[in-house]
Amino acid sequence: MRYERHQHKKKKRIRWSSVFLLLFLVIGAVAVYSYFQYRSGVNDSAKVADQDKQEYTFNGERDRNGLTNILLLGSDARGKEKSRADTIMIASYNPDKGTYKLASIMRDTYVEIPGHGKNKINSALALGGPELLRQTIKDNFDVSMQYYSIVDFQGFVRLVDEAFPEGVEVNVEKRMSEGIGVTLEPGVQRLDGKHLLGYVRFRQDAVGDFGRVERQQNVIKEVGKQFASFQTLPKLPKLVGVLMPFVNTNMDTGDILFMGKGFLSKENRNIETMRIPVEGSFENQRVSGAGAILAIDLEENRQALQDFLTK
């Protein structure tokens, strides 16, 4: 009887050893696959990306409410040091609730820039890089940013083409051509990266930058939805690799993969959006030296942004 018990325990140990070995091999294979996929994406983009990236100091702070806030900036400056931010967004992830939110700050919003007086908020990037823009948002809206990411628009084009070879389906609401380098006709259609970039950058109409911000947010939500419609998770390492040569960021690649994996793995991938300034809280004005600006009710917009991010 004792011999049989000894043999049973021995078989059990062998069985568990086999399970652990198999698990180790699977994890190792996934890690190797992910690494080579990531390097493949990097190598593809490195051939055309601007490798001379500006180095920035960024004194990021953790949000007091436990949120992970990322300052997202869109640029087509191709390494030019004094470029203004074409797109300013706050991407926020709540790890407790598992929610994703996106707030756009219109670039003509007229605010106090620390050490430089009042100006359009997008000028802060040219005056002092992402760190000054972080300080400007903190001082005016009391939102702390932990990370920043400046994305060259060509990276957006390559990411869309890699992730969606057949294009992203959008409803183009009107004919668009002026200032975007492509011509778009109205109607539901699938757009490749170049044409989708033109769509989200168009602002030569009656609604101007307001329409552009709305299109940007709608496209981000639509891309998130279409990511969820097929098995994107295995492609994630390569997609990150494709994008990284076009991104100037203080985020580790591991952090980006972790957040991307979390988003793609969730059943509810809804992205909530808002715009600063909120409706009814601003006036269109002209200021000497700055041109057309949005004069905002700062307190109302600060409270609206706080409520949006934390509730």
List keywords for this structure.
8 helices, Aminopeptidase, six-stranded mixed beta sheet, 22% strand, four-stranded mixed beta sheet, 311 residues, alpha/beta, globular
Any overview of this molecule?
The protein has one domain: 3-Layer(aba) Sandwich (Aminopeptidase). It is 44% helix and 22% strand. It contains 8 helices and 12 strands. Strands 9-6-1-2-3-10 form a 6-stranded mixed beta sheet, sandwiched between helices. A 4-stranded mixed beta sheet has the order 5-4-12-11. Helix 1 runs parallel beside helix 6, helix 3 packs across helix 4 and helix 3 runs antiparallel to helix 6. The chain is globular. It starts with a helix and ends with a helix.
What is this structure, in a nutshell?
The protein is an alpha/beta fold and 311 residues long. 44% of the residues lie in helices and 22% in strands.
What Rg is obtained from the alpha carbons, in whole angstroms?
23 Å
Structural class based on helices, strands and sheet pairing: alpha/beta
Largest β-sheet summary:
6 strands, mixed
Distance between the termini: 64 Å
Annotation, overall tally of beta strands: 12
Structure annotation, total helices: 8
Task: Classify the beta-strand content into a percent band.
Answer: 15-25%
CATH superfamily: LCP protein
Quote the CATH topology: Aminopeptidase
Known CATH architecture:
3-Layer(aba) Sandwich
Secondary structure: helix percent: 40-55%
Give the neighbour order of strands across the main sheet: 9-6-1-2-3-10
Count of folded domains: 1
Taken from the alpha-carbon principal axes, the silhouette is: globular
Report the CATH C-level class.
Answer: Alpha Beta
Low-confidence stretches: none
